[in-house]
Each structure stands twice: as C-alpha cells, then as structure tokens.
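for the writeup, i need someone to sanity check this before i put it in the appendix. the sequnce is what the collaborator sent (i think, or maybe the updated version? ugh). structure was predicted straight from it, no edits. if anything looks off just tell me and ill rerun, i have time this weekend
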Amino acid sequence: MPSWPPFTSVRQLRYGQDPYFDGWLLHFMTENNIEPNVNPQENAGIEQLRFMVDIDDDQVFAPCSDRMLRNLLNTELTEELRLEYREKWRTLVHLVHGHVADRTTRKKIYAISRHKIQQILNFPFLIPSRFLKQLLTIFMATSGLHDPLAEVKRQRNARALAFSKSPAMGWALYTCPDQSMTCTTLEDMRWQLDAIELARLARLSLCPEIWLGEGAHWPEGVVHLATAPWPELEGIFERVLRRAGRIKILYLPEESGEIVFDILFIRALLRLGHRVTLSVKDGFCLTTPTFWDLERDPALQEILDEAILVDNPRLSKNELLRLHRENPFLVIADGTRERLNLWRTSVTFARSWKEADLIIAKGIPHYRRLIANSHQFTRDIICIYQDEMGRPQVVFKEKSPRVRKITESQIRAQADAIIAAMRAARGQGKQVMFYSAIIGSIPGQTKTAIQVVTTFVGYLRAKYTNLFIINPAEHFVEGMDGDDLMYMWERVQRSGQIDIWRFQSVEDIEKSFELMNRPVPAEWHGKDATFSTGCTKEMHIALDVQRQHPEMQIIGPDPKRFFRRMEYGVGKYFDARLVGRDREESH
C-alpha cells in the first residue's frame, strides 16, 4: 500500500500530489457518492459548494470530521470506525424490530443489510453517516414505511410544547438573574436581559429530560440548569448579534423536542430585528425534524404560525431575497435525509447559507461537520451542543478571512449606479444598448470571451454615434459570483432604460476575432448567445421587458433558439450542461 503525502490538517489534502492518493480519493468520493462529476444530478458542483466552503479547485472536502477522514484514510478497520459502523447497524436492527411485523420482510432487510455491513467491514471507506443513509434507504424501500418515528417525534414535540406553557417554563425563563448587572445605560440593560433570555432558551434546548420524560413531570434540576449563567455564550452573542446590528441567520436544528425551544429561540431573535431561516431535513432521518413534520405535527404548526414554509428546492437569489423582505422567518428543507452533507444540500439551502451572515448549528453531529472539520467556511458559525458528559457547550468559528460577502445593498447600489448612467445618457439624447454575450459558457475560455465582447463593443462604439453601450464585462466587482451578477443585471435590465437589447451572434464573434487578427478557434465555431444559459435567462427577461416597453428592440438570434437550455449553473460564470428533456425536468 503506498504511503500518503504527509499532512497535519485535512485542509492540506489536495489532488495532484500523488497519483495513488488521487486514485484513493476519487474512489472514496465515488463510493460515498459525493463526487459531483460522476453524479451531477444529486451532488452540488464546486461552485455551489463554494457558497458554503472556502475551497480551492484542487482541495478535498469530505462531509465528516477530520478525525473520521483520518480513520478512513488508513484503509483499515480502526476501533473507532468499527464502533461507528456497529452503532449504525444497531440503529437499523432497532427500527426493524420495532416497526416491521412481517417476518419475511424482516429477514429480507437483515439479509441485504448484512451484505452491506460485511462489505464495509472488509473495506472501510464509507463515511458512517452515509452508511446509515444506505441502511435507512433499504429499510424504507423494503418495508414501505417512510417515517416510522413520526409518532415518536410528535410526542416529543408535544411534551416540549407543554413544558413551554407550564409554570416551570416561566421560572426558567423569567426568574431574575442572581448576578448583578453591570450596565450603565438602559440600552445596555435591555441587551443584557435579551442575552440572558437567549442563553436560557439555548440551555433549555439542551435538556432532553424535558421531552424524553413522561407526561408533565419534569426534573426539578431543569429550572436550576436553565437559569445558570453562561458567560461564554453571552459573550459570543455580544460579538455577533449586538455589534453586527440586524443580520440574517441560518439555523440548523438537531432533534425533535429540542426544536420547540429552537423555535422559541428564533422568535426571540426575530423580536430583536434579525431575519432567520430554519432548515430541516427533506425526508426521514431518524428523530431529526423533517419538512413534513412541520405540516403534520400539531405542536409545530402551533409554534410556527409566524413562519413561511418554502418548499421550492431551487429558489433563485431574487426569489429568496424577496421572500425574506416579505417575511423575516422562513423554513426550508436542506434537500437531504442525512446528517449535514454540503455536497448534497439543495440550491435553496446553499443560497440561504450564502445570503446569511451567521450560521447557528445545534448538536454534536453539526459540531463534527463544521467545527471538528478544519476547512474554513464562508460564514461565521456558532455551534451549541451537549458534550459526552451532558454539559452545555458553545463554540464560535469565524468565517474564512479570504471570503468577502457582497451584500444585497452593495449589489443594488452597483446596479443603481449603472442605471443612473443609462438615464443620464438618455437625457443627453443617446440611445442605450445592452449587450448580452457569452462570458464563461465555454470552459477555460473566460479570458478570451472577455476579449471578444470588449473588442466588439469597442467596434460598435466607434461605428455608431449617440449610442451608450452597456458591456457587462466592464462592470465586474471582485467577490461577486454568478448569482450576484445575475441579480445585479436583472435589476439593470428591468429598469426601463434600455432602448436596444443586442444578443451576441455568430457574426459578432467572427468580427471580433477578425478585429483581433486571430482565426476563430475551434471552441468558438458556431457559438452565439444561445449557447449561454445566462443569456437564455436574459432573453426571458428581455421578452418580459419588451411586453412592458414595446418600443425596446431586441437584436440577435431568434428567441426560440434560446429556450432549449436549462437554468444557468448555480454560482457559475459558465453554464449548466445541456441535458435531455427528461433529465432536465427531473433535475
């Protein structure tokens, strides 16, 4: 067995260091079914992953802790791996024993699952949570049960909600703190009281005795535990909630029962002026809350009366921002039915992460994926969990220093500056032309594409008088990705200030290469704006704008030729693939 390149941190793992190591990594990624190039319909592309993780092209990212990945790199069954796999097997056995009455079906599930676990024990390369998902898939497909723990989750949530309405909750949440307050102003006092309330709700969410017990008999120590000071958490809240002003938060819960206090915590954040997106699972994942729980569980329906449930897994940036402007509390599904796996999360989840200022994650599984994973993420993360000794813990992980967040207000300001220039040009008697062209639709040709469009726009400016041309390539802002640019340009395009909207044609491209004294490369033969899904989206916008402003001219390829393409790639400057109609519909 070849030795792997030396490394002290998982962040140092990169492709291209050793061919044997590259082969093992690709085997690991494909066998865990998280390699985007092999299964792009289910796995996020690297551009979508970059919404959440600060990662280079050749870096390796695995949805597990560094410690787990080190175990898997050993390519042999370590004791830690054996215990993890055994725990997943026991989970399956418990489910089958408790919920499958038919003996033949039980035997079938056990038989299939034994083949799986024997394979894993002989060749331990599967992340344990991915192994559990395989077992649960076998269980669901064979038994026909889609959520055998639905009633268990409802009971836990009902108990937690009952506690929240009890006198004990009043004592736990509203008892005056024993410590003297050091505030010097009323504003400081208000903040200290808010921070204490948030800390107590966080502590209550880490008291499983509340929802795992029977009836309305809760341990006496719960109130004492909830009212105990938590200066570490309050200090983090001071830094990331008070000083930052009103922010957007993506909240990742962990367990049913616990989620009732998570929602009370969120409601306290809403009262402070923050906007929150709560993310739950898309399907059965043991006792973790799912999207259908929110629609069927009376306790959750009662406590989520202020929230908007969003069931679209592919929200655009425009749609997401509009929803948040209309309602400060959104609930989404993360697109998975397993522990947090950023390769598998939905477009809506990825965009919600990207638009957030802060991630609040609950529980040990999130600690392992976000804190015990040495990769740097694109947003600040607070992880609140209960350690193995049952003690409440909080960890703050700062976002990568390389990441610059472009805010909605910055994008709008950039767009409004362009609109102002267009309006001024029209005031001077000029016509305004917007030029839509291929920028990154041909892999590896982005630099050439910018030269092509800039050369042709220069040619048009020299050829025509009183013409003000908007060339998108001249308005790139460092830090913007494809989503940000499309959001900015749509605001410009719908401003009503465009007289002529020109889409790049084959002749335009040929003229550009002629002006550059270069032959047309093979990669550019026959290309025009219809090859770009970004331009396709813009053609939809152009036709919509023309219906409102019939005097606007559209020049270029026939609009019908555009509409064979799918949505532009998430976060990409280049396009999603051309796919067959059936695959496109199911994507």
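The mean pLDDT is 89. The longest helix spans residues 79-99.
thx in advance!!
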